[in-house]
């Protein structure tokens, strides 16, 4: 059975040489204990847990899946034991506030943990991952009593959390939510309705599950303006914050899915369940965006994770599997054929996976620094600082989620292709990675929804192009610093061209949309993918600069490591970045070629 090895060398290169996390952590109040030695120890211990505990459960969990009996869900064999080890290690509270039993480390430490866990076993990682979003929502919007009741047991991992948005009649369009919340004389609410596609909706890993639920109050305004947010526990907490009576919320069925079968995806029925309002009335969607943005960044990891895992397994296979002779001559003369690794087209697939995994990881780690500042602003009550970094992160969130999950799917399928027919066979694990990864472009908003959020809301409506101008200014300032180094000049020049083009494309779409509103929708996907390729180009240029500096001044890795970084940057710029120009051309295409065929004429059947 294939195994996962945490890419600690690449992670430490990004943390120390590319983004200077030691300096970053030193600037944070929560970073006092995030010293280089402590960070290294945490990474090493988390890697050991993921490699030894989670990775071995990846394929067996897929084979067994979850089971539902009498409204109770049982996770696959070994999951409960692994979760207990997770709790004993204090992993759930790594970045949680100390006042609620957490370790108080920066939020980015949680992302580093989540990346390794998600790559080793995405299905398992979803259980504690959903809890983190619920904890953040309660921390930011809950009352003091709600924080005291829920955050400590959730931080300790004794209780879990979910987000309950989607209903049978509505997915992304939450204005159609029908779940109702009737106020009671004691200040509670009776929540009634059905939610579908609820990840971790029920399981046997924790003693309680805390559902964060969107519902409507009586006489609430129609649409999204009339949605409120509620805490609905599986078991109503006692006054001593213990587990009380069973609430009227139950798993009605488990979804039969293409992948992530060890993750319980539930239909949840609320039948007059006791709930507690969190945040202001009719502002539930605004509060839920805390949860959704957390989840979207987490989902972006499922672009990087499968690219890394599929690459690791495909690389090992390509080194061992022999087929034909290399066109440039025998490479393994003592064998009947050469290893796949010697064939240029196999190298194309492997390097594409490598560039996606390492470029995507850099994108995540860059965004994680913004998240650290945003969380610190919220924690300190500094609304101005929190809003500043929330806006910066908000621009990147749809790019991270949409672009990286699309490329994660590509990388997973390339891994299958390297294996050939064996990639289609279950025992090798490659088809499972592809199945598991497919959901990533769908949940927390499909790629199309992310694209509309980026172009329609973040760029055109909210900032009138300002978000692009601000981000491209950052890229351009970086590029100008490296124009005089002959080794880095090609990267810098290309980035300067792309920043100018990105702003021009934004303006052209803005002007076109004044005459044709469909332009926003028709251009949005290509705009997102173009934005992603340029952002990843920026990250590869930063890695090239860091690798060059380490070669000149010395670093903790070998020369081969740094030269490989430079070679992979070359590959990205020459082989993958040209895709951006196809997206640039397509996004400027008229919406007419999409809309001119009537719905009735889309198909002609007998």
TrEMBL record:
Residues 163-271 form the Acyl-CoA oxidase/dehydrogenase middle domain. Residues 282-453 form the Acyl-CoA dehydrogenase/oxidase C-terminal domain. Residues 41-157 form the Acyl-CoA dehydrogenase/oxidase N-terminal domain. Signal peptide: none annotated. Its cofactor is FAD. InterPro entries: Acyl-CoA_dh-like_C_dom, Acyl-CoA_Oxase/DH_mid-dom, AcylCo_DH/oxidase_C, AcylCoA_DH/ox_N, Diverse_Acyl-CoA_DH. Residues 471-597 form the Acetyl-CoA dehydrogenase-like C-terminal domain. Keywords: Flavoprotein, Oxidoreductase. It comes from the Bacteria. This is Acyl-CoA dehydrogenase C-terminal domain-containing protein.
């Amino acid at each position: 059975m294939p195994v996962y090895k945490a890419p600690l060398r690449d992670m430490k290169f990004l943390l120390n040489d590319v983004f200077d996390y030691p300096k970053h952590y030193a600037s944070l109040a929560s970073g006092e204990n995030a010293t280089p030695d402590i960070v290294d120890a945490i990474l090493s211990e988390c890697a050991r847990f993921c490699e030894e505990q989670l990775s071995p459960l990846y394929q067996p969990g897929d084979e067994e899946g979850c089971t539902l009996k009498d409204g109770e869900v049982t996770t696959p064999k070994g999951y409960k034991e692994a979760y207990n080890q997770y709790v004993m290690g204090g992993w759930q509270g790594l970045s949680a506030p100390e006042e609620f039993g957490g370790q108080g480390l920066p939020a980015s430490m949680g992302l580093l943990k989540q990346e390794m866990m998600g790559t080793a076993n995405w299905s398992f990682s979803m259980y504690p991952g959903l809890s983190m979003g619920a904890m953040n929502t309660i921390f930011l919007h809950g009352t003091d009593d709600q924080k005291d009741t829920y955050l400590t047991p959730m931080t300790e991992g004794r209780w879990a959390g979910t987000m309950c948005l989607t209903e049978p009649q509505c997915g992304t369009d939450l204005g159609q939510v029908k779940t109702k919340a009737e106020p009671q004389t004691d200040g509670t609410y009776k929540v009634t309705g059905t939610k579908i596609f609820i990840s971790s909706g029920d399981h046997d890993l924790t003693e309680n599950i805390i559902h964060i639920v969107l519902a409507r109050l009586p006489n609430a305004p129609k649409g999204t303006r009339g949605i409120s947010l509620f805490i609905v526990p599986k078991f109503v907490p006692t006054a001593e914050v213990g587990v009380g009576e069973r609430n009227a919320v139950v798993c009605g069925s488990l979804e039969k899915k293409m992948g992530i079968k060890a993750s319980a995806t539930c239909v949840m029925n609320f039948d007059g369940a006791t709930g507690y309002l969190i945040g202001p009335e009719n502002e539930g969607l605004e509060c839920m965006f805390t949860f959704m943005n957390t989840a979207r960044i987490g989902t972006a990891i499922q672009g990087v994770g499968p690219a890394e895992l599929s690459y690791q397994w495909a690389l090992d296979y390509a080194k061992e599997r022999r087929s034909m002779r290399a066109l440039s001559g025998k490479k393994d003369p003592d064998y009947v054929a050469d290893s796949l690794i010697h064939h240029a087209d196999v190298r194309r697939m492997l390097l594409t996976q490598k560039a996606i995994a390492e470029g995507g990881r850099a994108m995540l780690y860059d965004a994680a620094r913004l998240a650290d500042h945003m969380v610190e602003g919220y924690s300190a009550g500094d609304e101005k600082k929190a809003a500043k970094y929330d806006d910066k992160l908000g621009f990147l969130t749809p790019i991270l989620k949409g672009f990286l999950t699309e490329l994660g799917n590509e990388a997973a399928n390339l891994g299958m292709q390297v294996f050939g027919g064996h990639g289609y066979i279950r025992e090798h694990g490659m088809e499972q990675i592809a199945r598991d990864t497919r959901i990533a472009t769908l949940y927390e908003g499909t790629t199309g929804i992310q694209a509309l959020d980026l172009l329609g809301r973040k760029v055109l409506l909210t900032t009138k192009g300002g978000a692009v101008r601000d981000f491209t200014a950052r890229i351009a300032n970086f590029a100008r610093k490296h124009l005089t180094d002959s080794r880095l000049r090609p990267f810098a020049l290309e980035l300067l061209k792309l920043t100018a083009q990105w702003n021009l494309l934004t303006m052209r779409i803005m002007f076109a949309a004044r005459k044709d509103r469909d332009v926003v929708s028709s251009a949005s996907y290509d705009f997102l993918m173009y934005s992603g390729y340029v952002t990843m180009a920026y990250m590869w240029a930063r890695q090239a600069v860091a690798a060059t500096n380490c070669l000149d001044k010395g670093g903790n890795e070998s020369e081969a490591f740094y030269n490989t970084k430079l070679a992979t940057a070359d590959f990205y710029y020459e082989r993958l970045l040209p895709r951006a120009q196809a997206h640039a051309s397509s996004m400027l295409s008229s919406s007419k070629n999409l809309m001119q065929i009537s719905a009735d004429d889309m198909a002609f059947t007998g």
